[in-house]
Each structure stands twice: as C-alpha cells, then as structure tokens.
Specification:
The chain contains six helices and five strands, in the order βαβαββαααβα. By secondary structure, it is an alpha/beta fold. It has a five-stranded parallel sheet with strand order 2-3-1-4-5, with helices on both faces. Helix 2 links the parallel strand 2 and strand 3. It is globular, with a radius of gyration of 14 Å. The mean pLDDT is 96.
Length: 146
C-alpha cells in the first residue's frame, strides 16, 4: 500500500496515466478537475489532507506550487517528463483540457520547463519518460503501489 504523487509539466501524460490506473482498478485523483485547485492555483490543503488521511493507497496527479507541503505524505513522488516539443504537440492536440491551446500558454510551458521542472526533478523519488507506452508506465506505478 502506498500513496503516489504523479507530477510533471502539462502534456507529460499525467491524466492519461491516471486514466489507465483507474481502469486497472486503482483509486486515483486528478487534481486538475473537481475543484482541487483553488483560484490562486494552489491545492485546497484541508481537502488534500483529508484525502491522504482517508486513503492508504491512492494515486494523485497534479503540479501546483504548494504540493511540496505534502511530499512527506507520499511514499513516492513520480516526475513524468517529456521533451518540450512533445509537450507542446500534445497540449495543442488534446481536447479535454484547454490549457496550452494559445501561444501564450505554450510559451508559459516552455518557461516552466526551465524553472519548475528542475524543482520537481530535485524532489522526485522516480522519474518516468512520458513518451513510453502507457501500459508500461502504469506497470511501473503499480509496482510502486505494492
């Protein structure tokens, strides 16, 4: 039993990976949806605390500035990464999330690769290449859950 945080840049494949893990029967929470993120861009900390208190095994996905407050509550922090051209191609083609559809947002993602991703990498316990087949990535996360 473990709590796993999957983090990374927009377009890395976090939601797709969570969808696969959910299809395999795992409890997952994608914090990009259902108002987990407050208007200021941070997680709702009391809500996240309640989630982690209530579940010994859960996979949470998200990338927010206050996620570090919860690193000690996760057995594994997984950085899902991909090269910038892959991220930009994915965000420009996806349909379920509009972020990345404008030139300004894509420039923001490029900036985050330089400023945010190194911080995520420094705190990650595992880094996975988001270009790998989704089944392989899910297998790796399942191994962490055991």
């Amino acid at each position: 039993m473990a709590r796993v945080l999957i983090t990374g840049m927009s377009g890395a494949g976090k939601t797709t990976l969570l969808d696969e893990l959910r299809a395999r029967g795992h409890h997952t929470v994608d914090t990009d949806y259902a108002r987990w993120v407050r208007p200021d861009g941070d997680w709702d900390e009391p809500r996240m605390s309640r989630l982690l208190d209530a579940h010994q095994t859960v996979v949470v996905s998200g990338t927010v500035s206050n996620q570090g407050r919860f690193y000690d509550r996760f057995e594994h922090v997984v950085l899902l990464s991909a090269p910038l051209p892959v991220l930009l191609q994915r965000v420009s083609q996806r349909s379920g999330n509009p972020y990345g559809s404008t030139a300004e947002q894509r420039a923001e993602i490029a900036g985050y690769i330089e400023t945010v991703e190194p911080l995520l990498r420094r705190n990650a316990t595992v880094e996975l290449d988001g270009r790998r087949p989704i089944g392989e990535l899910a297998d790796e996360v399942e191994a962490l859950l055991r």
